[in-house]
Here is the input.
Amino acid sequence: MAAAGGSSSKRTWVVDVEKKLKEADKSAEVLPWERHCIYRVPPCITNIKSKAYQPQVVSLGPFHHGDLDLRPMEEHKCRALRQLLQRAERTFDELVDGVEDITEQLQGAYMDLDGEWRGGGRERFLAMMIFDGCFLLEVMRCTAADGKQVSDYAHNDPIFSPHGTLNMVPYIRRDMLMLENQLPLLLLQKLVEVESGKPPNNDFINRMVLEFLAQSSGPFPPGTGLGLHPLDVFRRSMLTGKCHQIWSPQDIEEDNVIIRSALKLYEAGIQFKPSKTLSLHDIQFRSGMLSMPTVSVDDSTEYMFLNVMAFERLHVGAGNNVTDYIFFMNNIINSAKDVELLSSKGIIQNAIGSDQAVAKLFNTISRDVMLDPNSPLDAVQRQVNSYFRKPWNIRRANLIHTYFRSPWAFLSLAAAILLLGMTIMQTIYTVLLFYRDDNSSPPPSAPSPI
Here is the structure.
């Protein structure tokens, strides 16, 4: 009887699973995935450095809203909203009406959004989006070149004054690069539309965000569509232009050997120079010359790269370009000497001091990272390795490094060659003189008859 009961229980469990499988709608699963672009970073990624994914001063969006350390910034969000409404001569109700039309899309941007922000929490979610979006707009405007449109803030404002721009905005800028701390640019577009009463402009929003996050970056390509969020715009600005793909059969090795360190490559005769652009796509190898974009390494570099790589891992379709670049840099940087060499060539701009710290940074953030076999950087690695393995290139490099590293070494070599040449010429002259004297001597006379 027990066996029969167990069999019946198991049968019920099987029926329940089969019913669940039949009720599953594949199309219903695909649609939410297409909307997701902001993610919670899983422990398998954060274990490298958990602090790199946590905002320090301000929460943007629902994932860190209410965090104890971030609550002091909430009062500044209220002031930003008030100033924006007064300047635009709009009402809060007008903002609500505009953003309410896109609330479902905004909610769909966040993967694994807690239930407190849905259903009955929809209004709370809407209010949070408006407060956070207006705050972000005001912060970006207060750091703009002219700054005229935000002159209505007090001179001693802790955030929106020149003092706040100098001391607090850098932390806000870094928090804007955290994957879990993103706002959809669709929200900023809608707020600007309601504020100005003009149709939305994708390029304007993209440029405003990029100019705030990276003042030294190149212009954002127009007509590329509205970015997903600030981190997406920043990432896309790092990948402007087309990849250099030089597929030459004689340059491609069959095995996937890791590229050597920069110092070993240099000793083998490979030269380094900065690329013409800052795009991570602009890496190529031609005739023994490896050109790479200049990268500035400062206190925020680690945070930025880790969050961009997390976005590439979690967002289907984002690509693997920045991750491939980090993998490539980790391979050519093994020690402080490699950093010193690349710095001398203008490829690394070290703003954190120690060359060893830069080497450790790239070696740490590349943990558990793999190179896409279809990446153009894989082809570059193979071309470099093919050049590295040719004996003549190594011998020529050894000759250059040994005898042409300084003027004195070159002069010593030249003097040695001249002395050797003179010795050889003297030897030849002596031999020729000997044979000439031997041939010109008279033949021995016949003995006189007795």
Remarks:
- The beta strands are 271-274, 284-286, 289-292, 295-297, 348-350.
